[in-house]
Amino acid sequence: MPDVVADGLRVLFCGINPGLMTAATGHHFARPGNRFWPALHRSGFTPRLLLPSEQQELLSYGLGITNVVARATARADELSAEEYREGGRLLTLKVARLRPKWLAVVGVTAYRAAFDDRRAVVGPQARTVGGARVWVLPNPSGLNAHWTPAALAEEFGRLREAAAE
């Protein structure tokens, strides 16, 4: 799954790993029930709701997308602890090379596993990764019923405000 990246982004969003639909289409967060694109728009990161097929347009807003683990699966719980740890190591190198202002990991469980931080919660983190500040966002999957679309947009908006400072 190719990254949508450039040097010096405002925010590099980092998904857990590609789902099967994402892998099949080549577009990040492609599953219709995924709430990433609506949250991005409702939070003010994008002036309109982008389709997954328009992902390259993110670069014009200083935004990008990558993943912790490159392997596509039907569900994130199919990934091993070792895959998460190796993904965190490779992500650190990628972030150091690309130098985004913020790394936004989409999914607190993935962040905890990739960076061995069992106490992490949604929101800004004290640590940096590859020189970038880190914000952990809720997983926008439609399966994550704990976060409503409005609450997701609010948390994405908190990051947008921090990234604008």
UniProtKB/TrEMBL annotation:
Keywords: DNA damage, DNA repair, Glycosidase, Hydrolase. SUPFAM superfamilies: Uracil-DNA glycosylase-like. NCBIfam families: PRK10201.1. One of its GO terms (molecular function) is uracil DNA N-glycosylase activity. Its EC number is 3.2.2.-. This is TDG/mug DNA glycosylase family protein. InterPro entries: MUG/TDG, Uracil-DNA_glycosylase-like, Uracil-DNA_glycosylase-like_sf. Residues 2-165 form the Uracil-DNA glycosylase-like domain. It comes from Streptomyces calvus. GO terms for biological process: base-excision repair, AP site formation. It holds the Pfam family UDG. It is an enzyme of class 3 (hydrolase).
